[in-house]
Amino acid sequence: MKMDLIRKLPDPMETKEMYPVTEEISAVVERRTAELKAIFTGENDRMVLIIGPCSADDENSVLDYIARLVSVQEQVKDRVFIVPRVYTNKPRTTGEGYKGLVHQPDPTGRPDLFRGIIATRELHMRVLRETGFVCADEMLYPENYAYLDDLLGYVAVGARSVEDQQHRLTASALDCPVGMKNPTSGDLTVMMNSILAAQHSHAFIFRGWEGRSAGNPCAHAILRGYINRQGVTHPNYHYETLLHLSDLYAKWALQNPAVVIDCNHANSGKNPFEQPRILKEVLHSCRCSGAVRKLVRGFMVESYLEDGSQPVDGGVYGKSITDACLGWEKTERLIYEMAEQIPG
User: Fold this and answer.
1) How would you classify residue 176: left for phi > 0, otherwise alpha for psi between -120 and 50, otherwise beta?
2) Could you give the CA distance from residue 336 to residue 222 in angstroms, rounded to a whole number?
3) Helices 23-40 and 113-131: crossing angle, nearest 10°?
4) Is 5 domain-assigned?
5) Which residue in 108, 248, 255, 279 has the most C-beta neighbors within 10 A?
6) Residue 251 belongs to domain spanning
7) Quick one: average pLDDT of 188-208?
8) CATH label of the domain that carries residue 100
């Protein structure tokens, strides 16, 4: 291969030995993940809110943001189950730009994958230890999941990864809910195939081992909008699409039919200030149809301390350096309004 091998990185087991979880952290992960599973199996009628920065670019501001969610969660705990987004990998369409904490622990510095692996594990551990939240991350690189598999409560497979065989097979081995996004083309059949694959057992190679997965009954859909052949974004959170998805689930006879609505990306045209309207429209659809209410299990919202976004070297504390986000004041108001509007 035409590739310079810079250094041998520690494998997941070695990394966990260097940065082990405590019994207290393990207990939080187990308890919160069990609550999440109960929502996706329909045993609990709360809604999930996966919320936080587009990318976890700065440890201090991310922890500041998540700490603010603690008191809000307490106020809405009977209606809303909050899962902070701590996305440490950032997919890049062209391969250029900031690729996330795992690549660049210092967003303005050079890539350092060793420091990045340590930084992602330390950040997730700090969130668990200091706030009691179990978090969500995107599985951009399936082979890297094992570095965090004892810390995460929710995993998303992105629109560009959902057609990939290794992502689907790895998702089938996860012991937490995993959301499979519709692809950028919007083809729901692709998404349904990915859920079908993730819910079944498979034999495959993972990090040098031959293994067999158990299948993941909590694999489910995420609707994030799509882009047509002319490059125009289109939403797919409307009432008719949700009814159609409900019918697809019945036709495919999949376990635990469920969908999470991604309120940003192509659903909002990457306008973060549309997210509250989208969330409330979907809640209205839930009030109009029992089938839709049963199907919709939650939302994804991109949110940070400050509205909007900035360049990587912008220097504004708590402002996204990737996709634009909803600021804290609007976020707090949205969470309370969501709790009030969830149909019983």
Assistant:
1) beta
2) 23
3) 80
4) no
5) 279
6) 12-341
7) 97
8) 3.20.20.70
